[in-house]
């Protein structure tokens, strides 16, 4: 299964290299990795998605990440309510005749057209990764010319969503 | 500034090799009062620093130039990383204005060494230098020790700035847990009390934590049998009746069977290396596994752990000794393992004509009265030294465990002798590994370092040959070296007296002579080339499936 880790790191030269070198050395495969500055100056947040069937591997990844001097915090937010968003940009074949069709198609995804050409349009969408997968699947028959995904950026939700309530109920932790 | 920082860190000695990009540093070192050992290769410098760190417990300091100077350090850095030895390494770098242009003698040292250092820095501003050096020494020597590298661009090394060493080290991302969780320690005590067949496994973590006395006290209290890893040798007296000898691939039958049969395995400061565990399916399979380690990433990495304890081995042992350790009856178990130890000692077929390598190690032990630092290279002689030299004191055993670096022995012995001038140092080396770094003989002469080099000469790459004999149908592909240099002449060419020993009587006489001769000496010991290291856990086998236990 996929695990989502968020890692707070010092925003210094070579940090990304340190993290990826660690994954390489240990033979862990990264599904997706995003990185950018945080609210605190000098700190960056990485969102790393790894695929691992064995929880011990995830545990080892977290421990190895913690060992890095430039890593301040590591959270495994997989089983917590989280906001996880990804951006995709898709250039898809679209003649003038079927442009309306494409526009209608992408509308429920709250995607938008950000560039228009004679034979193609470029669509932008943000959302959960499965939503983006669905959008790509829908557009594929038209012929995708270029596609770029950012990988997810994520952290935990503050508010108790209904799924969080269900989770707490299951754990018998809901304060009543 | 660098010199001031090294003085503030009370650096006693520097190992290094100059070159273009590091010239400003060498100019500052000129007549600075800190002794510098010029080795003949950068690999020699870093292994020497490892030997120094191993026997003194203090960080070894290494300086090399950019590009080839730095890349020549790579083997030693990896070796220090694997064996958790504290090093602070300064590498020269081309000036910041030309970094990234493939300038003369430029290499991305930071990139190359990232996976093999505990941490690394490239100094971008001379005013950072004192803080970086202070952090580097702190990181190298605390928590789980390791090598820390500082890459110094030439223009930064040339610049001057304000020296301020007063600020305390504060690294938010680096806070090793030293004091273990009290609740976990209580669980350990309870598990010990409940155990019927307990076994203690002590690794090098005990040595790093200088916790040998606490370990001894624990064994005195609970009277349980104890075994060591290869690198843990010396953390417990090798001649103690409860000591079962080293465990692992070439360990004792008793130690390995005790691991197989025990119902509680208390691992203090060992990382469950595969050379120790053999096939994991059979490793301590009936046991509650307790793992005390300062590095949380080691716990559960190889062997699932029932009671994890993160912390310094010394702190953990001290806290454990404050708990109730009234043991149940374990006398049957102790009798059983001691009987296994008695009836399955290490063995070799004695030979009147030829010098047996095992006997040679015993002779070294006898001649120095057991009181020596033994440094080895890697291979068969290393295992024989581990098997036949009972270490009674900590920090007397210097060997390349994790990386298994051939060429380690001679330069590490140089560093060990510099760290401990008061104890005789034997470099027990094989003819293969010795030829990888034998240019360092010059250093012995240059600085009058009285290392006694015992060359276990079997005219082959013994361990390779042994594996080819056992697992490759005796196809001795490139492992036999019938033509060797005349090591006596070679040694004499460097200005070092050398002797030959071909049988036991000669070995006795020559080792004694080596000890009586002031300064460095080499003894070329001719041993049979077809000798094997036994017993052995074959690759892939369980720890209980040793071969060659009996003659």
Key features of this structure:
heterodimer; A: 176 residues; alpha+beta; 5-stranded antiparallel sheet; 4-stranded antiparallel sheet; 5 helices; 30% helix; globular; B: 551 residues; alpha/beta; 6-stranded parallel sheet; 23 helices
Describe this structure in words.
The complex is a heterodimer of chains A (176) and B (551). Chain A is of the alpha+beta class and 176 residues long. Helices cover 30% and strands 38% of the residues of chain A. In chain A, a hairpin with a 3-residue loop joins strand 6 and strand 7. The radius of gyration of chain B is 24 Å and the shape is globular. The A-B interface holds A 9-10, 13-14, 17-18, 21-22, 24-25, 56, 59-60, 63-64, 66-72 and B 110-111, 114-115, 118-120, 122, 124, 139, 171-174, 295-297, 300-301, 304.
Can you give me a brief rundown of this structure?
The complex is a heterodimer of chains A (176) and B (551). Chain A is α+β, with helices and mostly antiparallel strands.
Radius of gyration of chain A: 19 Å
**Tally of helical runs of chain B:** 23
Low-confidence stretches of chain A: none
Would you tell me the structural class of the helices and strands of chain A? alpha+beta
Secondary-structure map with pairings?
The complex is a heterodimer of chains A (176) and B (551).
Chain A: E1 2-10, H1 15-26, E2 30-37, E3 43-51, H2 55-67, E4 71-76, E5 82-93, H3 99-106, E6 112-116, E7 120-127, H4 129-139, E8 144-149, E9 153-156, H5 162-170
Antiparallel strand pairs in A: 1-3, 1-4, 2-3, 5-7, 5-8, 5-9, 6-7
Chain B: H1 2-8, E1 14-16, H2 23-29, E2 36-38, H3 42-56, E3 60-64, H4 68-71, H5 74-82, E4 87-93, H6 109-113, E5 119-122, H7 129-141, E6 147-153, H8 154-158, H9 182-194, E7 198-202, H10 204-208, H11 212-222, E8 226-228, E9 243-246, H12 253-261, E10 264-268, H13 274-277, E11 288-293, E12 307-310, H14 313-321, H15 331-343, H16 357-367, E13 373-376, H17 380-388, E14 397-398, H18 409-419, E15 425-430, H19 431-437, H20 441-446, E16 452-457, H21 462-471, H22 487-493, E17 498-501, H23 504-516, E18 521-526
Enzyme class (chain A): transferase
Pathway (chain A): Amino-acid biosynthesis; L-valine biosynthesis; L-valine from pyruvate: step 1/4; Amino-acid biosynthesis; L-isoleucine biosynthesis; L-isoleucine from 2-oxobutanoate: step 1/4
GO molecular function, one term (chain A): acetolactate synthase activity
